[in-house]
Fold each of these.
Amino acid sequence: MKKLNAIVLGTALLGSATALTGCGGEEKAGGISPQQFTDALHLVMDSDRAVYTKKVVGRLTKKEKVIKASEHFEDDKALPLPAQMFRFGSERVAEKTDKFSYSLQSLFPINSQNAPRTDVEKEGLKFINDNPGQNFYKEETLGGQKYFTAIYPDVAVVEVCASCHNKHKDSPKTDFKVGDVMGGVVIRVPLG
């Protein structure tokens, strides 16, 4: 039943994306606001990622110790890291729709490709770092297209998240702990 509800929600969200014409927080006749849309997308993304991190990676690597997780998962015959699974989903969505895009970024990226690129991304990542538990919303224009951009804190949900980043040779920050904001989920929706 929950799976059916998720499918219905996803279908409704994609349908509503075509009705987005204003900025965050505004109700739109026949649709939902960009903020409601991105908040709902983030809820699904965050829930899926937490489940993969705890129920798959955490259980199989730490509790049952039957397989490891590795950034070189194909060579190592291991599980992809939660951040890699998130990126794979983002890339697959980008192949199927231009109604929204999302990425995982950080002010302290292990991979330089995950560093913020726009002024709004930099402002938003700094805001969620300085204001734990709060989201960031702003409009921006890129390449002549106006977007609603939402940035949500990406928090270390289990010890393995923090320790993996702290031990990685390319990590610019090595003192993360559970509960810390490690980066942000950036969701961008075209307006108009």
Amino acid sequence: MNILKSRETILGLAIFLLLALIASRFPAFVRPRNLANVFTDTSPLILLALGQMVVILTKCIDLSVAANLALCGMIAALMDGAGIPLVLILPAVIALGAALGGVNGLLVWKLGIPSIVVTLGTMTIFRGTIFLLTDGAWINAHQMSDAFKAFPRAVILGLPVMGWIAALVIAGFAVLLTRTPLGRAFYAVGGNPHAAVYTGISVGRTQCAAFVIAGALAGLTGYLWVARYAVAYVDIAGGFELDVVAACVIGGIAIAGGSGTVAGCVMGALFLGIIKNALPVVGVSPFWQMAISGSAILIAIAFNARGSRAPGRIILKQAEHKS
């Protein structure tokens, strides 16, 4: 059946089976209120994974998203401490995140440095900048205003604002990637950069735009993260960039670029989010969570490799018959 060849369908079935397995031992886990909490907990991963998705689509990768998140979150907390209202903090950290992403994009575009090298360097710079700004000190809940902490936790129609923001961003990305020239350019640049140039698309500018979008989402997520957990420090979201890449890979985003969907990316993030929320409930060690996440990544990569190899063989076989 063709429908079973769809990555999104397989992921949906895997998530359904996972929920059914968990519900067999803990029925309360699948209650709507708890599922809304799981979605909200996974929202930071969804937001960063969508940003990472457009970067990967253009044959690049951004390993600095978690450090970008941490720096923007710390700046948001410092601005709140200085008495700046939230309506100014939010656009400021989104702009800061976009600028930091733009630095990555410009280095990749103008200097031709591989994105993995650029973002490894900026990842360290961003973390170091937080340390220089704060001398390694934490900003805790009592140092934050109530309005700053309350916004992402406010509940509208049963779902916290953080969850609604994730839902709006998902809808926006669905439109961006399927209905706009920029969305088509992301796929074209990643699928065949040489052909993209012949159609008038600037490969470097498109890759830079992808980094800016990923950075803006990291800036937004930085505020949401710090406000929700009411703490900011140097190592916040340490290692989270690996979860972001894992969500993309599990969701079927081709690491070589040019292929992937918003639905797959979101389901990849939800798959990891459900595992991370469910395993502690059933008493599984956090180390097993890492092992299970790693196994899911390996299975996804093997699945991707098998899926991308078959069409080539078919084309070659057809060519052999014609010759």
Amino acid sequence: MRLTRWFLRRSLRLAAVLGVVAVVAFSLIQLAPIDPVDAYLGPQMAQVSPEQRAIIAQRWGFDQPAVSQFFHWARQLLQGELGWSHIFNQPVNEVLSQRFQTSFALLLLAWVGSTVLGFLLGVIAGMREGSFGDRLICLYAYGVASTPAFWLAIVALLLFSVTLGWTPICCAGPSGVLRNDVTWWTRLHHLLLPALTLALLGIAQITLHTRARMVAVMESEFALHAMAQGAGRWDIAWRHGMRHACLPAMTLAFASWGELFGGSILIEQVFAYPGLGQATVEAGLRSDIPLLLGIALFTTLFVSTGNLIADFLHTRIDPRLPGIAS
């Protein structure tokens, strides 16, 4: 019963957040200094007459007041539709579904890699504070944490794809090959470098927070008592430190879904990977309002789900924390 009330309370908060996000996102789009007809036409804007521009504006509703456009979109949303994307000429639901399926493998590989490697590096560094390995891991973590994602992606692309030729330069598959004809190995080959680059960016925070918790465990009284009885640092870390250190790592892993999606936008642009991040940039540059609003709501739902899972698991692992019981 407590779990049901907690879930309903969080669902109501999420519904309120989605409403605020929709209003703020639509207002920001309207305030942007971009003519929607020019953005829709792109380089062909000079070849279109004023009469044709008026027909285009009437076709996509650009000539309507902003409030009317928003309520028209909101009525469609209440009927389970997110509108029509004019740059992809598809329903927004289908665009989101197709693009997220492509991005899902990238996000999943990067998330699992950054969580596992970040946790292990944090444990190893925290077990022996001040050692050469600890200083080396901290140097890597601070260096990567201060490195822009697009710069790291460009360096990786130049080194591994252009210079060494180990990985493809772009895309989710070979050019000119239908998606259904691309083998799983080829897809993984194209996915490897973008996923690795995105994972490297997420490792730093998990490593540093796990290290700090592990250092606190190794300096605790029960750790000193165990050492006095002959236990080694690895025994203490394995038997006592892992559970304490997994709390910040787990919370950061699920709470970082927003940063992960933000990083994927830059990574997909650099590697020309046709996922949801690339669709976000195209929708912004060409002022595709229904698609932008759909992506904003989907991203909010995606990030909120990660936070919801993190809160739920946090209270399950450590019942002393307020959460479901409150």
